[in-house]
Structures are given as C-alpha cells and as structure tokens.
Amino acid sequence: MSTPLLELKNVCNAYGSIQVLHDVSLHVNAGEIVCLIGANGAGKSTLLMSIFSSPKITQGEILYNGVDVAAIAPHHVARLGIAQVPEGRRIFPGMTVEENILIGTLPIGMQHAEEDKAEIFALFPRLKERRNQRAGTLSGGEQQMLAMARALMARPDTILLDEPSLGLAPLIVKQVFEILKDITSLGKTIF
Asked: Fewer Cβ atoms within 10 Å of its own Cβ: the N or the C terminal residue of the chain?
C-alpha cells in the first residue's frame, strides 16, 4: 500500500467556541480524484481551508507528502505543491483573464509563466479567446475555468476544489468535470 499524498488525522477545528470539524480522518493518494460530500454547513470548506492553515486546526495532523502542514503559513503550503480553487471562484473582476492567470504564479515565481500559460490556453481555449477581457464579465462557467487555470499556474501536484459546480448550469458542470479529468491525466491529484 502506498503512502497517501494528503492525509488528515483526527482533525478538529472551530470558529471561536463553535466546533466545526470533529476528528476528521481521510487520505488522498496521488493521481486520485476524491470528493467530499456533505450538507451545507457540514464543514467541507473549513476542512479545505484548514489544509492551508486558515483557520489553523485546533487538534490533529495534516500531512502532505509526509510534511505536517498544519502549522505553516499558507504561502509555504502552496510552495509544497498544493493549490486551492476557493468556493465562489474569487477571481479579480477588474483584472483581465490573463492577469488573473498570472496571479497563480505568485507561490513559485514567473520563470515558467509563458510556457505554463500556453498549456493553460490549450486546456482552456475559451480563456485564450477572452485573455484581454475583464474577468468580471465572464460567465460563471468561464470564471470557474479561470479559477482552475489560476491554480494550475502554481504547478501544483494537488488541487483543492471547493464547490466546483456551485451556481453553474448542468451543461457547464459537465464541461468543468471533463476538464477535471483532463487535469488528472496531467498527473494532478484533485480533492
């Protein structure tokens, strides 16, 4: 049996006195797509944000490639090979599509930006068409693709996706999930 790429052991977390996560344990192996399913308010987003120490867990361990990431700064977690696509996409609406994509290089620097941008535009041809358009004018599906593209620019091994189908039409959801399969074929792990 292989060592998990991402492993959570008895993770607890709270917002003030409100306990949100209770002894969560799970693992994600390299190359997998793992889905976490639960009701609204069950703590899914908190769990994903906790991997980036925001908020810091109150108990347990979060290991990535055997490194305990629970107590390190979010930008250091990103440099270990994890990228996050937050719920609601959180793009920069006043910036262009291309500027939003380049923001994804912040954890690793710009040395591979042009090469990676070409790969992103091959994976997301619609974004290439709209590269000079303000991101806030994109459709919801295009914004979701932009958020995923931005995450990929950090050259992660693992991508944390929070509610990737939120507010999207069924046809667009299908397109997004097809792209996720393409991303895993590039050797990425998706949680």
From this structure: N
